[in-house]
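Trying the structure run again after the queue cleared.
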Amino acid sequence: MAKDKSRDKEDKKREKKSKEKRSKTDGVKKPKREKEEKPAEIGGVKKVKKEKKEKHAEAYGVEQIKKEKHLKRAKADEVKKVKREEPEKREEADEVKKIKKETREKRAEADAVEKTAKEKKHKKGKKGTAGEIADDHDIALVKAVKDTDVTAKLLKTLEENQPGSVATKTDGQLEVKVKTAPLLGALVPFANPLADEKLERRVLKGIKKAAKVKALKRGVKEVVKALRKSPNPSSSSQPKLPMAIVVFAGDVSPMDVISHLPVLCEDKHVPYVFVPSRHKLGEACLAKRPTSVVMVGKEKGKRAAEGDEPWGDTYKHLVKYVKRAGATVKI
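Done. Tokens:
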């Protein structure tokens, strides 16, 4: 009996333990059910996201449609502008054609008048003095009209290419005086001393001789290099003849290319002068292109030929002219 009781107690204990375990497992399993319920919620979230994406896609599509409409409107506006400009261009072309026609008609009239005058002159029969005078007057008028047309055309072309030029008629011959000197507005503000026509001719002649004797350095780089290599003369003992002369072009653009060189020349006691035209300076150097700066050396170059002209006297005269121009510098 005692054994049976002890077994019953053990069975009861086991049942209690099993119940406790079950209760624990039931408590743990509950969240699993909740997890099972969660996929439904996730599916709803996904649906919302999909809807948002679809809305975004629709909005993007609407924006693209708007952009396309805007581009179409812009193209239509451009086409309208072109259509508006076309009649204006046509009108301009028509005006040019009208002007050409008028000039042709004037020429034809002048030629016709000249022909009639010549025919009248060559007609058989005697004419009175009054008739001859009238014919001569007609011919003179025709010639005057032609001359005025020619001079007007010449003046127009000259003003376009060489401003300040003049066309004059002397003794029945038409003479054109072309102004080659540049306008003052084209020169750099520090072009001082500036050579006049006489000094310019002398300087350019000396540069030509220097080019033949190979005593010339052309361009900003070469001139700067030569000036920096030259010794610094003391203020007490200055040489009678400077080592070189520098000639600048006054119409250099931009002016910063040569703006630092006059100061460097003054530091090295090298006389300098400005010439109005860089094209003329390039021609004097026997170069095909215009030149902004040129240095004329005291001595001949190594490549100079033996039979060349003496260079010492020409260099002395050149120094004399340049120094004389530098004495009248306006500050």
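The first strand starts at residue 166 and ends at 170. Worth checking whether this holds up in the mutant runs.
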